[in-house]
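Forwarding these from the shared drive since the link keeps breaking.
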Amino acid sequence: MEFAAKLFGGTAALRNPKDIGRALVMTVGVPLAAFAIFLALWSFAASRIQTSLGAVPGPTQVAQQAVNLVHEHFAERERRDAFYARQEQRNAERVKEDPGYQPRIHPWTGKATYIDQIFTSLKTVFVGFLLATLVAVPLGILAGTSKVVQAAINPMV
């Protein structure tokens, strides 16, 4: 990011092509090389580690499983959408037969996918952080302004 700011910001520091090349290598080349080394070490180590549960997966197996999890998520979403479409169709047919019928939509109870669980975890962390902030900030202000409150909460801190 610093490289882009210097390059497009027009600073005199990157007017020299040598400086541009050096900055590009440092901001793009070095991180890419480090990532490639990490993947190579992971692949090398994974092929040699055996546990009671089997082999440690390498980068290609992990990438393939990530793709599978994304496909599973979209397949589950299609099943959910089909479930709601069937309900809408049944309710429309029932209302046509009996105009006094009050349509009901049953909630989807299909399995949560990996992506759903990630979002659930993120919401949980966010709510926990929000609640902790709502408690800790006023308590910290009180402790900073009152020696009595500070003495009261100091053993817990």
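-- next protein --
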Amino acid sequence: MKIAVDAMGGDHAPGEVVRGAVQAFREFHLPIVLVGREELIREELRRAGAEEMEVHHASEIVEMDDSPGGAIRKKKDSSLRVGLNLVAEGKAGSFVSAGNS
């Protein structure tokens, strides 16, 4: 089952998050889907030479000053909400975020 990763969550995202996901993908052969702004994620994947990794686009980002509950309700296309929906829909087995959640 896939692991959905919030590529837009946390400090220095998406770069640091994508690099960590690429490392896990390569070392442990984990089925990872990166969630967030596709153009930014794809740029990081190109830099890492990992263009084959799966990306699921989400147009909104939960900012550090957003309330988590408010962001879930109001930002329906946030990487946080989209990642959780992937699990709810059975398209991923788990979701990980280092962001404001």
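The chain has a mean pLDDT of 95. Helices lie at 15-28, 38-48, 68-74, 79-88.

- D.
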